[in-house]
Q: What sequence folds into this?
C-alpha cells in the first residue's frame, strides 16, 4: 500500500503529514497511559469491561474484514497489537502522538524487529485526515470519541474517508455508571476528556447518516458498528 508515500518519515517506520510533530498531549503520558489501560482492574473498575471485550470487538474491524483499514487514534495498540500482527489487510494506524506511535511500533515489531509490511504508522490529525473522500474499506476508532468536545466533527471526518459499502467500528466511554460519570467529569475538569455523553447521546452521533448502525453496551462502554450505504 502506498498511502504513506506522500508523507515524510520522522522516525523509523513512522511518517507524518503534520508541520508540528511534537507537543501532542499524549506524548507526555504515553507510557503511563498504555500501562494503565493494559491492566484488568482499570477497565473493570472504571468501565466494567474486560480487555477481551475490546479485543473481540476490534477483531471484527481488523481481522474479519477485507481491504484497507484506517485506525484513527490508534495509540500504542494496548488492546489491538495482536490483531494488527495477525491481519493481512493493508492498514494505516494514525495518531496525533508520535510517542504513542513509537509504542505501537515496538509492539508490532516485537517478534523480529520489523514492522509488518502491510502496516503503516502515520502521525496525523483526526479532524483533518490527509486522505480523499471514500478511501478506506474499513474505518476504526477505539476509545476516542469521548476525548473530544466536537464529537460530531470527528465522526464526520471518519465517515468522509469511508467508502460506500464500507464498515466502521467505534467504541467510546460513556456516563452510564456512576463511577464512570464521576471519573469522566473529573478528567473533563483537567481537559483530558470532552463533554461527557451518555450511551444514547453517543449513539445519536451516528443517526441521520447514510449508515446502518448496530450497537451494544458493556458496562459503560458503547460499541458501535456501521455499514455505509452511500
Ligand atoms: C484514549 S487513547 C486510545 C488509544 C487506542 N485507540 C486504544 O484503544 O487504546 C486516545 C488516542 O487518540 C489520540 N488522539 C487524540 N487526539 C487526536 C487527534 N486530534 N488526532 C489523532 N489522534 C488523536 C491520542 O494521542 C491517543 O493515542
A:
Amino acid at each position: 500500500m502506498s498511502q504513506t508515500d506522500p508523507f515524510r518519515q520522522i522516525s523509523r517506520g513512522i511518517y507524518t503529514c503534520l508541520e508540528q510533530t511534537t507537543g501532542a498531549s499524549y506524548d507526555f503520558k504515553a507510557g503511563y497511559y498504555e500501562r494503565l489501560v493494559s491492566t484488568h482492574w482499570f477497565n473493570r473498575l472504571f468501565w466494567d469491561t474486560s480487555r477481551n471485550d475490546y479485543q473481540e470487538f476490534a477483531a471484527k474491524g481488523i481481522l474479519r474484514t477485507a481491504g484497507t483499514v484506517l485506525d484513527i487514534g490508534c495509540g500504542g495498540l494496548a488492546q489491538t497489537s495482536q490483531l494488527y500482527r495477525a491481519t493481512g489487510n493493508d492498514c494505516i494506524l494514525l495518531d496525533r502522538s508520535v510517542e504513542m506511535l513509537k509504542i505501537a511500533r515496538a509492539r508490532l515489531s516485537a517478534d523480529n524487529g520489523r514492522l509488518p509490511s502491510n502496516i503503516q504508522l502515520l502521525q496525523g490529525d483526526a479532524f483533518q485526515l490527509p486522505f480523499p473522500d471514500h478511501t478506506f474499506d474499513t474505518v476504526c476508532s477505539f476509545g476516542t470519541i469521548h476525548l473530544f468536545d466536537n464529537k460530531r466533527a470527528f465522526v464526520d471526518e471518519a465517515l468522509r474517508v469511508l467508502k460506500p459499502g464500507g464498515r466502521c467500528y467505534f467504541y467510546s466511554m460513556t456516563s452510564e455508571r456512576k463511577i464512570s460519570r464521576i471519573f469522566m467529569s473529573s478528567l473533563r475538569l483537567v481537559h483530558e476528556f470532552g463533554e461527557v455523553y451518555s450511551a444514547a447521546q453517543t449513539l445519536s452521533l451516528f443517526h441521520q447518516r447514510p449508515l446502518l448502525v448496530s450497537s451494544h453496551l458493556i458496562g459503560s462502554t458503547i460499541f458501535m458498528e456501521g455499514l455505509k450505504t452511500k
The domain at 26-228 is CATH 3.40.50.150 (Rossmann fold). The chain is about 30% helix and 25% strand. The beta strands are 8-11, 14-16, 68-72, 90-95, 119-123, 136-142, 162-173, 211-218, 221-228.
